[in-house]
């Protein structure tokens, strides 16, 4: 279905909707929901309710050039080269070169913070960089929460293995404990392995960022910098195992034993494993975690549990994500449609038991 900027829409296979505010590509629309969140949505999943008479047709997308947002609370820094390649010795331009799918599917997206002056303790101003450490191109948006709305800061498209200056954050702004909303889509200009669309809430901790010891040597900058990983598919399972507490290890072992007992007891019946992804079930204390960190923990738990279920030939798994604002459910179903496509099928779990707060996954 064709849709245009300004159209009021609803989601075809999910609850909710909003207004189309732009396009990330010919097939991906950016939808702003009632809470002010900008969500990348596949156009095939959109139903137009009320069109805009001053609309821009999707067919004209390539003829339109999106301008960066002008309103920003972060001051732009002049005379700083943007879109700087991470590999300084590689001067090859790839703007007009077709990407290669065999360059790999690993990715890591991060924010980098660098002091503007050497006297950081007094000045405190920081340069903020978006880092795309992958062979994928990336479309991104970044904004800052203010009450219930997000103030746009910058958006753009980056090549693979690049970093791009977002702006400068003052010491006063750091003291306000800003929360950023970052959305990004990874893609190539050839056939490629799809990755899930990411929406991350990142809360900057002023106690840590104002500590000079947080700025260390790194792979991205000549200067010492503070690097925060927003999303990565590198050694996900290894990192999770290394960060497991004794309680987590015992719980994991209990889950494994429970699965084995179920397989013996119900050898001739459908095996169903239930995984509760509420953060309270995963960790003891969530007070110091941002929304983005909570979502990452939940997604990591989901992928690890599903991978174990596939290995153990579990026939059915129920993932309890709750109703909430739908972010966790949205990301789970994105992964099922991309990373696990062909391996599983899914549907809403029993409404009577879970309301609309769980997804039933059938392993093929």
Helix and strand element order: EEEEEEEHEEEEHEEHEHHEHHEHEHE
* Span between termini: 31 Å
In CATH, the homologous superfamily of the largest domain goes by the name Smr-associated-like
Low-confidence stretches: 52-73, 75-94, 236-242, 259-270
At CATH level 3, the topology of the largest domain is Immunoglobulin-like
Could you provide a short overview of the structure?
The chain is an alpha+beta fold. The protein is built from nine helices and 18 strands.
Describe the fold and architecture.
With 364 residues, the protein is an alpha+beta fold. The protein has 9 helices and 18 strands. The protein has a 5-stranded antiparallel sheet, with no helix packed on it. A hairpin with a 2-residue loop joins strand 9 and strand 10 (149-158). It has 3 domains: 8-63; 84-232, Smr-associated-like (Immunoglobulin-like, Sandwich); 237-363, Ribosomal Protein S8, Chain: A, domain 1 (2-Layer Sandwich). It is 22% helix and 32% strand.
Protein traits:
364 residues, alpha+beta, Immunoglobulin-like, Ribosomal Protein S8, Chain: A, domain 1, 3 domains, 5-stranded antiparallel sheet, 9 helices, 32% strand, globular
Task: Please describe the topology of this protein.
Blueprint (H helix, E strand, L loop, with lengths): L7 E4 L5 E7 L4 E5 L5 E5 L3 E5 L33 E2 L21 E9 L4 H4 L2 E9 L2 E10 L2 E10 L3 E8 L1 H5 L3 E9 L10 E6 L2 H4 L16 E7 L3 H7 L3 H20 L6 E5 L2 H4 L8 H21 L4 E5 L6 H11 L6 E5 L2 H4 L3 E6 L1
Parallel strand pairs: 15-16
Antiparallel strand pairs: 1-2, 1-5, 2-3, 3-4, 6-11, 7-8, 7-14, 8-11, 9-10, 9-12, 12-13, 16-18, 17-18
Helix pairs in contact: 7-8
């Amino acid at each position: 279905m064709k849709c245009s900027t300004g159209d009021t829409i609803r989601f075809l296979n999910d609850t909710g909707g909003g207004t189309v505010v732009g396009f990330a590509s010919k097939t991906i629309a950016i939808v702003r929901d009632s809470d002010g969140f900008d969500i990348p949505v596949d156009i095939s999943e959109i139903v137009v309710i009320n069109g805009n008479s001053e609309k821009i047709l999707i067919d004209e997308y390539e003829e339109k050039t999106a301008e960066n947002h002008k309103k920003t609370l972060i001051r732009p820094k002049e005379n700083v080269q943007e879109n700087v390649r991470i590999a300084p010795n590689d001067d090859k331009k790839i703007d007009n070169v077709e990407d290669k799918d065999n360059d790999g599917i690993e990715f890591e997206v991060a924010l980098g913070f660098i002091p503007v002056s050497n006297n950081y303790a007094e000045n405190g101003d920081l340069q903020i960089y978006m880092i795309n450490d992958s062979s994928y191109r990336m479309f991104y948006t970044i904004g800052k929460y203010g009450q219930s709305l997000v103030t746009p800061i910058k958006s753009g498209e980056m090549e693979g293995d690049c970093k791009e200056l977002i702006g400068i954050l003052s010491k006063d702004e750091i003291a306000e404990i800003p929360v950023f909303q970052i959305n990004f889509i990874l893609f190539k200009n050839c056939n490629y392995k799809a990755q899930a669309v990411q929406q991350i809430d990142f809360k900057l901790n002023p106690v840590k960022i104002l500590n000079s010891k947080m700025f260390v040597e790194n792979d991205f900058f000549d200067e010492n910098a503070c690097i925060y990983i927003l999303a990565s598919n590198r050694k996900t399972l290894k990192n999770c195992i290394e960060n497991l507490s004794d309680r987590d290890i015992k719980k994991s072992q209990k889950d494994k034993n429970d699965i084995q007992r179920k397989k013996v007891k119900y050898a001739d019946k459908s095996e169903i494993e239930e995984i509760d992804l509420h953060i309270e079930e995963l960790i003891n204390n969530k007070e110091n975690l941002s929304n983005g960190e909570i979502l990452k923990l939940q997604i990591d738990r989901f992928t690890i549990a599903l991978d174990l279920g596939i290995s153990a030939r579990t026939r059915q798994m129920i993932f309890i994500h709750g109703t909430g604002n739908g972010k966790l459910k949205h990301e789970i179903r994105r992964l099922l449609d991309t990373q696990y496509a062909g391996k599983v099928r899914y549907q809403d779990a029993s409404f009577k038991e879970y309301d609309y707060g769980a997804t039933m996954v059938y392993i093929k």
